[in-house]
Amino acid sequence: MSTLVLSTTRQRNLGALTLIGCAWLVFVLFLVLPLYVVLSEAIQQGYASFFTAVLEPDAIAALKLTLIAVGISVPLNVMFGVAAAWCVSKYEFRGKSLLVTLIDLPFSVSPIIAGLVYILLFGAQGFFGDWLAEHDIQIIFAIPGIVLATLFVTVPFVARELIPLMQQQGTQEEEAARLLGASGWQMFWHVTLPNIRWGLTYGVVLCTARALGEFGAVSVVSGHIRGFTNTLPLHVEILYNEYNHVAAFSVATILLVMALLMLILKQWAQERLEK
Amino acid sequence: MARSVSPVIPGFNLTLGYTLVYLSLIVLIPLAGMLVYAAQLSWQDFYRIISTPQVVSALKLSFGAALVAALVNGFIGTLLAWVIVRYRFPGRKIIDALIDLPFALPTAVAGIALTTLYAPKGLLGQYASDLGIKVAFTPFGIVLALTFVTLPFVVRTIQPVLEDIPRELEEAATCLGANSFQVLCHVLIPALLPAWLTGFTLAFARAVGEYGSVIFIAGNMPGKTEILPFLIMVKLDQYDYLGATAIGVMMLVVSFVFLLLINLLQRYLIKH
Prior knowledge:
heterodimer, A: 275 residues, 1% strand, globular, B: 272 residues, mainly alpha, 14 helices
């Protein structure tokens, strides 16, 4: 066994055990305990108050808004991701690496700034503020603003997953399909899509998880109007700041369950991807 | 634009056009808009806004805490990646799966969970206060929160590289007489360093801009535990758009400089 070559078995085992022990410690301290805190605080006053908090009208409205934002931004970013990965992986052109860098921009920008840029465009003092007011269109402090902010921060996710994958897959299969007479869409549907489906799924899961939990950017553009412009994470913040900790953690549990579901889906997609 | 386009595969114009339009509308034009908005300020006004003590201490706190958190994660992340890749032990798969929890968990949930955990009467906070250490409402708490949020970055960038290092490399070194430490220094670290730096950079960039998981545990006291993103929020609440924009632009510029420096360091290390 190659491992025996490195050092005496006993030394190595002790070293390995220490490292594994440290890893477990880090794991419990940093990952398990926060999970435990959310759940234990949520049911601190019993299951009844948990369900009251979760089924409260403002919470339901917040859930609906979160799902709307996710339901719009994820498909749009999927289309973008596929288009961007397509043109980056199937063709050569000048400025390609610049394009890839630009796609990654939202990652290096604070979510607060993501919200700020839209306020500067569409807010009352913004570039289009007067025009929007004249036409009675509300973007900031309303649903469109929230969707835009969520879009901004989740733009790169699908693209980043698909670009390396499609680059690795190359152009041969698509070219073969075309030469055999397939139209562009047939080629895409029957050749490309099946090849990228697990990478796509993985990207969609990451994108959705981020969109569900986005806080900073949405916080800036939302106006925090209870029952109208609060997403689920914002609702959690409001409850917590009102010292209504049990309700805050109860609603947080919904988000936690969604996050764990995302993790399971991600793991599933990843295993399929690696086959 | 010079390009070599496969004459066979259709869709170049469609996909490139769609990509550019979408990216411009959602990302590039809004960001440019912020720069244009900031251009209203004269250089003196701009400097005046960003050199107030409040802004300066927020700047130091945001970048300092991010640096510390990224370094801590550089260490912890490497440990976790090593253990997951090199050893087999009960619970390995669970740890591997849950490492991405900070990616998936909404930052607000992380924020309130960590605050409750480290509050003076919290599960871990009580031990800290027994030892006389204050966690909540201190920069230490901020670093802890940032460490949690950026935990996956270093692990996930090192993991594939570690998996791909051929064992033969280490075996060859050992056969040639290297002890474990030398194998570490001359084989493993050079192989891992680029990935480590990438993970570190991603963690740092994320930590600088982090908002949701920090604001609860920080206390947000101006001059002491106020991070830059929070300060921008404060300015926006006061309708001081120009102030918020100035700080935002400064934040982008300083981040850009940091990332550029790390990038240069990476290239230097790869060459040598």
